[in-house]
Design a protein that fits this description.
GO terms for molecular function: mechanosensitive monoatomic ion channel activity. Belongs to the MscS (TC 1.A.23) family. InterPro entries: LSM_dom_sf, MS_channel_C, MscS_beta-dom_sf, MscS_channel_2nd, YbdG. The protein contains 17 helices and 8 strands. It is of the alpha+beta class. The protein folds into 4 domains: about 160 residues, no CATH class; about 70 residues, SH3 type barrels, CATH 2.30.30; about 100 residues, Alpha-Beta Plaits, CATH 3.30.70; about 40 residues. The strands form 2 sheets. A 5-stranded antiparallel beta sheet has the order 4-3-2-1-5, with no helix packed on it. A 3-stranded antiparallel beta sheet has the order 6-8-7. Strand 2 and strand 3 form a beta hairpin. The radius of gyration is 40 Å and the shape is rod-shaped. It starts with 6 loop residues before the first helix and ends with a helix.
Length: about 425
């Protein structure tokens, strides 16, 4: 004959089973974990799915920073708080642990809400000019500090003011521990208030190997992505101690400087003779200049009674280097990619053992790196290729081919003799 337990028998069994406190405690833990798993499956995952389907971007950040996950912890702690009455011997400890858990759930909830707010703020253009990530991290630091103090006070059943009063005696130690944090906070404030740099700015800081774009400004660190795609992390407070260069002024001005020289072989510098002068008069960019300059020189020599035929050193004369310099200036003035309203000149620098530097100083209208380099290369391609038309030679160190050619000519001469 089969035996089927009645409801009264099942209740009696439960009463006997639950007389053991450890078994009751285990049951409370199982119920709490079950509620956590169920709430995570039913509530949290549903919220994530709805966020992904929603056209609104704001709820995507709630999913990204796991704000919905807090609901599972909150429900589990709520169940633990009320289920504590099933274990009278352990109820006070369980309730206190649940209260401490609630403190840290609130702290984590505030932390994630601040992260969501920061992410939403960074989608607006104003975030590049006024980043708030460092200030938000300071707020998070205070929130976590308050959470630790309140959590310890709840766990030990003491007033939070007891812990706060003890911090006064440890102020020197705390200042030492949080020295870099305080310095970083001051640096972050200075960076934003004085607009030293923004997200997206190109900065150079050679001491730390930084030469690229600012991609993140946080409380403790500033991230710079170099042009070779490496990332340099610099302590924020170092920007108050070390010098750095910000290229934003160049971008705002709309002109990127060319400051490069070629080395002219000084042995090829000479006065213009009649043959070279006639050839250069045919150059479109020099025609007006040479006509006016020749009239000016001839008038001066006549007024001074100078006989230029007697000696090349008498009176004023044109040189191939000076004419070449004027040609380059006129070429730059006619160039469509060069700013005419900014400094534009071609100048000589002090002679060196390698030659006479002839420096081009001007500004390209396009500040982007690749277009700028193309313009600069085109200009110097032209300069290097036209120097020979002025009977000038650009200096370079002798190569193996030069030495081979020189030796070959010496051998040939020796054979002839």
């Amino acid at each position: 004959m089969l035996y089927f337990p009645t409801v009264e028998n099942f209740i009696t069994f439960l009463q006997k089973f639950l007389q053991n406190d450890l078994l009751r405690l285990g049951l409370v833990i199982i119920i709490t974990l079950a509620c956590y798993v169920l709430s995570r499956k039913l509530i949290v995952e549903t919220a994530h799915r709805l966020s992904r389907r929603s056209p609104n971007r704001w709820d995507d950040y709630f999913s990204q920073f796991k704000v919905y996950d807090i609901a599972a912890y909150a429900i589990a702690l709520l169940v633990l708080f009320y289920a504590a009455n099933l274990v009278p011997a352990w109820s006070s400890i369980i309730i206190r642990l649940a209260e401490v858990g609630w403190v840290f759930v609130i702290v984590v909830f505030i932390d994630r809400l601040l992260s969501v707010g920061t992410a939403i703020y960074e989608t607006h253009p104003i975030a590049k000019e006024h980043p708030i990530k460092g200030y938000v991290q300071i707020i998070k630091l205070f929130v976590y500090a308050a959470g630790i103090i309140i959590g310890l006070a709840t766990l030990l059943d003491r007033s939070p003011w007891v812990f706060l009063s003890g911090l006064g005696a440890l102020s020197a130690v705390l200042l030492l521990i949080f020295r870099h944090t305080l310095l970083s906070f001051v640096a972050s404030f200075q960076i934003v208030s004085q607009d030293l740099f923004r997200l997206g700015d190109w900065i150079e800081m050679p001491k730390f190997g930084a030469d690229g774009e600012v991609i993140d400004i946080a409380l403790h660190t500033v991230k710079v992505q170099n042009w070779d795609k490496t990332i340099v992390v610099i302590p924020t407070y170092k920007f108050l101690e070390e010098s750095f260069k910000n290229w934003r002024g160049m971008e705002l001005a709309g002109g990127r400087r060319i400051k490069r020289a070629i080395l002219v072989d000084q042995a090829t510098v000479k006065l213009l003779d009649h043959k070279l002068l006639e050839r250069l008069k045919k150059v479109h960019l020099l025609k007006n200049y040479l006509e006016e300059k020749i009239k000016e020189i001839d008038a001066y020599n006549r007024e001074q009674g100078i006989d230029i035929e007697a000696s090349p050193l008498n009176g004023r004369r044109l040189t191939n280097l000076g004419t070449f310099r004027i040609y380059i200036e006129e070429y730059l003035k006619q160039h469509p990619k060069i700013r005419k309203d900014m400094t534009l000149m071609v100048r000589q620098l002090a002679p060196t053992p390698q030659g006479l530097p002839l420096e081009v100083y001007c500004f390209v209208a396009d500040t982007r790196w690749i277009p700028y380099e193309k313009v600069q290369a085109d200009i110097f391609d032209h300069i290097l290729s036209t120097a020979g038309e002025f009977d000038l030679r650009v200096y370079q160190m002798p190569t193996g081919a030069d030495l081979k050619e020189g030796l070959s000519s010496l051998i040939a001469k020796k054979d002839l003799t």
